[in-house]
Each structure stands twice: as structure tokens, then as C-alpha cells.
Amino acid sequence: MKKKEKVDVLIIGAGPSGSVAASYLFNEGFSVKVVEKNRFPRFVIGESLIPRCMDHFEAVGLLDCLKEKGFEIKTGARFLQGAKACEFDFSKKHTEGWDWTWQVPRADFDKTLTDELIKRGVDIDFEKEVTAVDFVDDRSVTTILDKDGNTLKVEARFIIDSSGFGRVLPRLLNLDKPSEIPKHSSIFTHVKDVNRPEGWEGHRITFDIVSKETWLWVIPFSDGYTSIGYVGPTEYLASFKGTNTEKLQEMMKLSDHYYERFQDLPYEFEPRILKNIAKSVKQLYGDGYVLTGNSAEFLDPVFSSGVAFATESAHLSAKLIAKELRGESVDWETEYSDYILEGVRVFSTYVKEWYTGNLQKIFFADSENPVIKSQICAVLAGYVWDKTNPFVKNHHRLVKTVAHITDMEKENANS
Asked: What's the pTM value of the predicted model, to 2 decimals?
């Protein structure tokens, strides 16, 4: 292994955010190195995408290689609560933009991205761990350890942390802070979905709400496998006893819709648990570095926003870094932090109001308002910066207001 290298930009993590950032900067002619702790393909959660991320893959030239893989098309999402159903169709949303995306096994999806980048000539080092970062003058020096114990020093003008749940720079630079999102955990696995129904029913992504704060995801893939997992309060998930397999098997009994379909199927791997999913940080950038995706803010999987925020922040940070490397001025607070956090605040409202029950009241109201539904649909599609959408512009109060009106209508109907 070389002892020293020098690049314009070092990217930590080769997932979707790292791949988007690397593709953009490489296309712009800058020297880029990507270091990834794992060997691909590797399992990672976050298998349901939303349409906004398609803009980013297209912008950096990564859309065609993904289309060739034949991933499961996702045109919306269905939410179930007992006998009630609420289905969102991305083609019927307030904001212009993509009306479809994918449901993907992330191992295959992420490897498709890195294979394409390697084919183009991007330098990606797998099974390399970042152990230290030092900032000297206008450059960083990153210490990287390989599996044999050898070290490499990489000097870079900028570091992009796209390490996801690895959260490398937040850990090394003490940037973590408690999230305002309630403490929820998840337990999940894959199954070979041999009982999958014919037609659309067997392909649609569904969230089965078994209580106000606990829900099951069902995400079918085009290869015949399906991702299943529960999200709920951390203490509640911890109340289930036994192995992780026994815990998930017991939890599956909570779903009237899906217990029979999955009850006798073996799990492809021992279910995994992510505790206290939501994450936050003190700042999104500093001199010579920027945080993207889950290494910065992660809210909750209920609306599948993780990959879209990852690619949004990666694409934007890469563009701003390119500007600065060309000698142009960049206001990182306004152009990056304020912008990203604006979107995070919108989605945070929807996550919080989901768990208060207010958003569920709107989803499962007895009467449906098509205009309101189209505006909420645009948020769920990831277009959370569109101020022409009242449910974006007034997100902090509009969900509460409409939920209150829904309650009043229900009371009047029952009186």
C-alpha cells in the first residue's frame, strides 16, 4: 500500500451519496478518492427510494446503469390501518418531477453504482477504515487503515463524509447531538416471497400500521425476495423475548394483513436490529469537510426519505466544493446548511406528526380531499423545497390544522 496520496476530494463511504458526489466531481475533472470500510456487495437497510433521488442519479450520469438492472418499480406507497387503506400515487402529486422510482436490494443497487464508477476510472478503495483526520492549514490529512494493518495518509482539500450509519466524522470530530425525533428502533430481514400474490398486490410497497407508533414495512423486490421489518418505540421492541428471529416471528402476528403470507417462510438471515434510529449533528460542515446523508441527519424510515436526503446533500455539496476548488466564493451556511436543514425540518414535521397520530388521521379520514392528498404526496415524493406547496411552506402548522378539522368532521358525523 502507498504511504501517502494527494487528491482534491476524499469521500468516505461508497453508498448512493458517496457515488453521486464522486460521479459529479470526477465528471468535473477533479481528482477524487473514495474509501469504503466494507467490501461490496454488502447488506444495508434503506431499500425503498422516493422520486426526488432520481433527479440526482440522472444529473450525474448514473441513471442508465441503474435502469439496466430491472429493479422493482415504485410508483407510490400504500398505508394500511385495520380495514382502512390510503394509497399515494406519485403521478398525482402537486409538484412537477419524477413519478416513479425503485424498491431495491441495496447490496445490488449500491454495487451497480460503484461498478459504474470504477469502470469510468474513479479510485475506490474497499475494506479501508478511516481512523483519524487532522486539519492543517487549508488541507486535511486522513489516516486510513486496511485489513492487514497497513496505513495510508491521504491529503485532500475537502472531505465528504458519506459513511451513512458509520458516521465517521461525527464520531471523530464529536459532532453528534441527540435527535428531536422520538426514540424508535427497527427489526428486519428478507424472505423468499413464495406466497407473493399475482398482479399489483404482489409488487406494491405497503406500510401496515398496527398501532399509532408501531408499523410493518413490506418491500417486494424484482428478484422474488421481499424485505419485511417493524419499526416501533425502542422500549416496546425490547419487550419481545428470545432470538431476533423469535422476536420478529412474534411481531408478525400483529399484522392481520401479512401474517399468513409470511408466517411459514424462513428468514434469509437472522433479523437485524437498529436501535434509536434517528440521528442528528451539531453542524453539517466545517473548514475542509461536509457531512451528507445519514452521517448528518437521519429521521425515520416511515417515509423512505433516507436515500433522497443522502443524494440531495451529496449532489449539492459536490457542486459547492467544485465552485470553491475553482476559486469561487461559497457561503456554506446559506447555500448548504440552511438549504438542507430546511428540507429536514419539513420531513421532520411529517415524521413527528405521524407518531402523534395527526398525519394518520388525515391519511385514514372517512372523506378524501384530492388537493390535500396531492400536496402531501409531493412531500412523500421528496419535493420538500417546493414553496408553492402549502404542505411545504406551512408544514409546521398545516398538518395539525387539517388533523383538527378531520376530528371535527368525524365528531359532527357521529353526533
From this structure: 0.95
- Integer Cα distance of 28 and 304 in angstroms: 30
Under 8 Å between Cβ of 265 and 192: yes
3-state secondary structure (DSSP) of residue 365 = coil
The tens digit of pLDDT for each residue in 83-129 reads 999 999 999 999 999 999 999 999 999 999 999 999 999 999 999 99
Tell which residue, 302, 288, 298, 282, has the closest CA to residue 135.
288
Task: With residue 108 as reference, give the H or E element that holds it.
Answer: helix 106-120
Cell of 339: 438549504
Could you give the 3-state DSSP secondary structure of residue 240?
A: coil
What is 327-341 written as a DSSP string?
Answer: T----HIIIIIIHHH
User: What angle is formed at CA 411 by the lines to CA 410 and CA 415, rounded to 5 degrees?
Assistant: 120
Specify the higher pLDDT residue, 58 or 298.
58
Residue pointed to by grid coordinates 458516521? 167
Contacts of 231 (CB under 8 A, 6+ apart): 184, 185, 186, 214, 215, 217, 277, 300, 301, 302
* Strand pairing category for 225-233 and 214-220: antiparallel
Which residue type does 345 have? R
Domains of the chain: 4-75+98-178+279-343 (3.50.50.60), 184-274 (3.30.9.100), 359-414 (no CATH)
Q: Are strands 206-211 and 214-220 parallel, antiparallel or unpaired?
A: antiparallel
Alpha-helix residue ranges (DSSP H) falling in 272-387: 306-325, 332, 339-356, 358-363, 370-380
Cβ atoms within 10 Å of 180's Cβ, excluding its own? 11
Cell 441513471 appears where?
Answer: 63
- Burial environment of residue 337 by CB neighbours within 10 A (0 to 12, 13 to 18, 19 or more): middle
